[in-house]
Amino acid sequence: MDTARKRLPFSGYSDAYALPSIIRCETNLYLAQFAFMKLLPAKYIIEQALARGTLTHGMKIIETSSGTFALGLAVVCRERGFQLEIFTDPVMDKGLENRLRSLGAEVFIITEKAKQGGHQRSRLDALQARMRHLGHACFWPRQYETPDNPAAYKLFADQISEMLGADVTLVGPVGSGGSTCGTIERLRQKATGARLVGVDTFNSVIFGQPDGERKLRGLGNSLVPKNVRHELYDEVHFLSAPLAFAATRTLHERHAVFAGPTSGASYIVGRWRARQYPRETVVVICPDEGHRYVEAAYDHEWLKQNACLNESVLLDTPATENHPSTALPPWNRYRWNRRTREAVLNWRMLHGEPR
After folding, report:
1. Which of 139, 173, 191 is the last residue before a domain boundary?
2. DSSP helix/strand/coil, 350
């Protein structure tokens, strides 16, 4: 109590909520729950740009995002006094849009979908057109390619290693690649054997699935982000939306952890890994809380209407697939073995069947 009383107050919201709470929920299974994880890279990217002089006051910040990276930028821009424009698509939920506007951001919803790359491509095209109009009066954080995105997670990695040691198995969803790649790079500086398990969804091109519609948001991509360093991953798991939603509710029911579907997807993989390898310390990244999903993942009628209701007993074990391109729902595991994306995909093209 004396230590708690002496602790200084946080200087702002972004300082208070940038790092997660580490929660032990089984013998060797830990959850790292963020309020919303993308606040950490948003804060770091803006701070680094200000330090370098590539961002100065009076410039407008513009970005493409349909999720919490936009919210992270909005928080930091409100604290720092910057104007923000977000280019998104209809998948952004109204609650998030309202919160962005309340923080002063302008939100542009791009309804047209590009033939190649889907909404993510059309959003980028709209953003780049806006950049040409603004010229040097704008700054684009480039979350999918700036090295400052993964670099931001050094703080998170140090938090893990101080509490649990660096020789852990990190399990996390893969979207921009920043959180999983940045965290494991830092952990492996202290423990080269630290393991990385990526969690993706079907119809995401990141690890070689064919592109298609995805009901599970917050992970996966129609483009391959530069910040995804495939050679860092030991294993990749693909999960369906119904299974991820079921796992999200299970996480809340069993452990009172109120989180979003990407957290549920990572939790079911991390739980399997912790039980399969009881000597490992497994740390699961839970990217955000569940408030945005009360009327979706936590709502029986919404799940039923969207064909995402899974009332069966939660799966305990994934199927193990011979190649990521042929993985099928509801849950598939692939041993990536720290190879490049080209090495994995080209093996199948050259030999017909992978190793």
Report:
1. 139
2. helix
**Residues facing residue 107 across a β-bridge:** 86
Q: What is the pLDDT of residues 108-141, one digit of tens each?
A: 999 888 877 788 889 999 999 999 999 999 999 9
Count of structural domains within the chain: 2
pTM for the full predicted model: 0.92
The tokens of 196 are what? 């990385």
Reading the block at residue 272, the tokens are 């399997």
Average pLDDT score over residue span 30-37: 97
Q: Which of 106, 139, 172 is the last residue of a domain?
A: 139
Six-digit token pair at 185? 């790079």
Q: Domain check: are 304 and 209 in the same one?
A: yes
Q: In this structure, is the dihedral angle defined by the CA atoms of residues 2, 5, 11 and 13, taken in order, positive or negative?
A: positive
Residue 302 and residue 332 in one domain: yes
Residue 98, domain extent:
39-139
Chain-centre distance of CA 311, in angstroms?
Answer: 26
pLDDT at residue 213 is higher than 80: yes
Contact in structure between 78 and 103 (CB atoms under 8 Å)? yes
d(CA 342, CA 327) in angstroms, rounded, equals 17
DSSP state of 232: G
